[in-house]
Amino acid sequence: MTTGTTLDLKGLKCPLPVLKTRKALTRLSSGEQLTVLTTDPMAEIDIPHFCNEQGHTLLEAERIEGGHRFVLTKGG
């Protein structure tokens, strides 16, 4: 099973993590997974909100050393 694409956005501040996540999802097909790594504290709020608003599924959201890791599935 493939884990999909990983997007390393460490060091970027709001709103860049969400904007770059949105752009990366446009290159994926519906149902594909995207892992997003961030250090911006606002991403903990922004990424789940973005998924909810745009119809993507947030599979995992966890704090990791120095930031966060999100696993999304692109919606239809």
Overview features:
Translation Initiation Factor IF3; 2 helices; 4 strands
Describe the structure.
Belongs to the sulfur carrier protein TusA family. InterPro entries: TusA-like, TusA-like_sf. GO terms for molecular function: transferase activity. The structure is a single chain. The chain contains two helices and four strands; from the N terminus they run E-H-E-H-E-E. By secondary structure, the protein is α+β, with helices and mostly antiparallel strands. The model has no long low-confidence stretch (mean pLDDT 95). Strands 1-2-4-3 form a four-stranded mixed beta sheet, with helices on one face. Helix content is 30%, strand content 34%. The protein has helices at 16-26, 43-54; strands at 5-9, 33-38, 57-64, 67-73. The chain has a single domain (5-73), classed as Translation Initiation Factor IF3 (2-Layer Sandwich), CATH 3.30.110. The longest helix is centred in the middle third of the chain and has 12 residues, at 43-54.
CATH superfamily: TusA-like domain
Give the fraction of residues assigned to helices.
Answer: 25-40%
What order do the strands of the largest sheet run in, or round the barrel if closed? 1-2-4-3
What is the tally of beta strands? 4
Helical/strand content category: alpha+beta
Low-confidence stretches: none
How many H/I helices? 2
Question: Measured on Cα atoms, how large is the radius of gyration?
Answer: 11 Å
From the N-terminal CA to the C-terminal CA, the straight-line distance is 21 Å
> Can you tell me the number of structural domains?
1
Q: Which range does the strand content fall in?
A: 25-35%
Tell me about the biggest sheet? 4 strands, mixed
CATH topology: Translation Initiation Factor IF3
Q: In the CATH hierarchy, what is the architecture at level 2?
A: 2-Layer Sandwich
Just give the CATH class: Alpha Beta
